[in-house]
Amino acid sequence: MPHVLAxxxxxxxxxxxxxxxxxxxxxxxxxxNGHEMWDALERLPIDLVLLDxxxxxxxxxxxxxxxxxxxxxxxIMVTARGSETDRVLGLELGADDYLPKPFSGAExxxxxxxxxxxTQMTVDEPVVLGGRRLHFAGWTLDLAxxxxxxxxxxxxxxxxxxxxxxxxxxxxxxxxxxxxxxxxFSRNRLGDVLDRSVDVLVSRLRRKIEPGPAEQTMIxxxxxxxxxxxxxxxxx
Length: 236
Description:
The chain is of the alpha/beta class. 40% of the residues lie in helices and 21% in strands. It has 9 helices and 13 strands. The strands form 3 sheets. Strands 2-1-3-4-5 form a 5-stranded parallel sheet, with helices on both faces. A 5-stranded antiparallel sheet has the order 9-8-7-6-13, with no helix packed on it. Strand 4, helix 4 and strand 5 form a beta-alpha-beta unit. Helix 7 packs across helix 9.
């Protein structure tokens, strides 16, 4: 039973979310603020964090940034403000998805299940790709462990959305991928393909796998079309 941590200071909303998720087969722990969130994460095996933006004390954005610096646990931001600017900011800070209020119980459950499918993928699926490790420019992506290793062997944390986007590039090197195709390949539904969701994810990947702005050659921007992954990719 997947365990969701619902960080929401509105008690009625927290109860409603808990009832909906429990009715759909999830175990739910509630938290009213950042202090209770950190306490739950230390004590419990949490699979996904549902994080409200407007919280007393540290905001959801602050908590998202701090949590992503420590963990790759999936994060869904929830807020009454659903503008593109807010969505982009949440994604920049490391969120995997962004859900504006009001939302239906069915949509909430569907988004959580979609993210958990990506982050809890069985090791059997990657074997179809021809190997359990993908190598590029000295880097290694272990599909079975869902881990990325730098050329010096250091582990690099990836959020679920970042992992899916990188995998889409590695499966289609030297090909121009439009933004909507990247969303399709990565099974990622972060919003309308006309917004900046894909651009944000690509920017996050660049910061992690490319040495600096002057050397950002792995992921080439094809102006007006999309992106192309330039290194050769091998499998083992």
